[in-house]
Amino acid sequence: MTKEIHLKDKTFVPYISEDKILSRIKELGQELRLDYGTENILFLSVLNGSFMFTSDLMKEVTGEVELSFIKLSSYVGTSTTGEVHELIGLNQDIEGKKIVILEDIVDTGLTVDRVRTMLKMQNPSSVEVCTLLYKPDAFKGDSAPKYFGFEIPNKFVVGYGLDYDQLGRNLKEIYQLKE
Length: 179
Ligand code: IMP
Prior knowledge:
alpha/beta, 6-stranded mixed β-sheet, 3 helices, 21% helix, binds inosinic acid
């Protein structure tokens, strides 16, 4: 693995190698197919961060799958419950479908909770979450992701799709913020 890198004002050190990421993704792909049997899985990949994970995971899931990319608008207005978000890009009927949401990272879990709530209004058969990285110590969501690649401590990471101020998404490995 390469040495430490610099993005803007921060320094990051190598954390999870490309080999480790890819072999774990292979296991995840097999686990998903085992759980869903011969059924069609509709993967909904949450942009931007999950594009690299999605691409590598798709190659490891055999059988019938569908894939759509979705995005949660950062903010479209206010209500009594706080920020109102909108789901962008979902232009297919998901009623009765077995959905797996693909995320790069589940941190507080609020993003994925919002996506899950909005999807459930359209009556899919099931909705699960598959994330490459999961920070259990930061998690405040309703239910932990069923599928995850790596549990990591509550420290900032970049690479393999994840950014620091829009930089670092192109890195093949995952780096952790240097203390
Ligand atoms: P949430 O806190 O689970 O809602 O995560 C919100 C979003 O914050 C994620 O989808 C990521 O885009 C971003 N995020 C959270 N933790 C990190 C990190 O360590 N590195 C880069 N992005 C992160």
